Amino acid sequence: MNHLTLMAISLVLIGLMFVSLYIARLIAINRRRRDAGNKGSTEVGFVVDTFHDLVSKLKEKERELEVLRKKAEDRASSVEIYNEDILQSVPSGVVSLDQELRITKMNQAAEKILELKESDSIGKKYSDIFNEPVAGIISKKAVVDRAEVGYVTKSGKRIWLGLNISLLKDSANNIIGKIFVFTDLTELKAFQSQMELRERLSTLGEMSAGIAHELRNPLGVISGYTKLLSKKAESALQPTVEAIFKEVEVMDRIISDFLSFARKTDLILSEVNLKDLLNGCISNVAVSARKVQVIERFNSLPVIRVDDVLLRQAVTNLLQNAVESMPEGGQLTVSCSVGDCLDISVSDTGHGIPENIRDKIFLPFFTTKERGTGLGLSILHKIVISHGGTVALESGDEGTTITIRLPRDAIVSRQF
């Protein structure tokens, strides 16, 4: 109900009050005159009757106005509830701010995406609630049609936001604040990244196959001549010959990795007990992880339909990579969970991965290790993708978590 309607009702009620007082006064005068035998009692009675009739009609109008007022209030309340339902139901985050850039409203999607609470945010300045770069965008720009920014929530979670900012106006077209609307693009960005990486892997895989075959032939010749040299060389030259052998072995391992990466992945699916698979991989890595404490956060795991050999290779590569990130020792945690997907997570307490290279660690031949080939995580990524899954990375200054995420339909029987 608008202000004009309320004002009209108020004026009518005030008028009724004055009319009632006036009639009451006339009735009192009439009684005094009647008692005194005044000759004009008949005229006064007529006036009184007329006003009684008027009061009756006014009261009837008052009841009608009360009914209209109640309907208007109910309608206004219904519209307000409906608008609130719409606001809370949209999947995008919506935050309104006043002219002083204090938060006046925040919907449930905004709370969930930014890990905030409306009750803790209302009335506070934007700079006290939002981190950069969102805070800077709100303060510097009145209108933003479309922007994509990286954002870190209060818990340290890294997300991607697609946002726009518009002016908030009242019914008279006066500016009364701003509206900040945003969506969570994290999963979309991850999907795009996975697709781009898949295309790169496909191209590089074809190149790697040709290079590996070209290198293996001369390497075989070098290995053969080295064996002959070891039989005829003097004892003083034996350390040199052994060094050549070791380098040949390293090169042969690199070429094998090249071929493994380049080889077309044809899955041979079978039913595999996930717990047995993980325990086997942990046992293989345990020999080189003497300084590392292994924590297993799983008990009864499901039977899954996967390529046993390839998935073992992927998990082993992941565990080995985690162990190598902790040369001085630390904790290696292996955990599993089932939600929308089947997640196999490996966490370490190593030095972490710098933010500027996180997008590169799954690229072939990229490595920060002195003698690494840069193919371990690339092969892992390729194997997981061939199973219809994805690989997720979370890293900070102290530790990294890499999660193999397989589709839920890979589960044959659930034993969690």
UniProtKB/TrEMBL annotation:
* Annotated InterPro entries: HATPase_C_sf, HATPase_dom, His_kinase_dom, HisK_dim/P_dom, HisK_dim/P_sf, PAS, PAS-assoc_C, PAS-like_dom_sf
Enzyme class, top EC level, equals transferase
Ranges for domain Histidine kinase = 210-410
Task: Tell me which PROSITE patterns the record gives.
Answer: HIS_KIN, PAC, PAS
Question: CDD domains given for it?
Answer: HATPase (cd00075), HisKA (cd00082), PAS (cd00130)
Q: What is its EC number?
A: 2.7.13.3
Q: Transmembrane stretches, by residue range?
A: 6-24
What are the alphabetically sorted keywords of the record? ATP-binding, Coiled coil, Kinase, Membrane, Nucleotide-binding, Phosphoprotein, Transferase, Transmembrane, Transmembrane helix, Two-component regulatory system
In the record, what terms sit under GO molecular function? Answer: ATP binding; phosphorelay sensor kinase activity
Q: Where is the PAS domain?
A: 79-124
**What is the name attached to this protein's record?**
histidine kinase
According to its UniProt entry, this protein's organism is Candidatus Sulfobium mesophilum
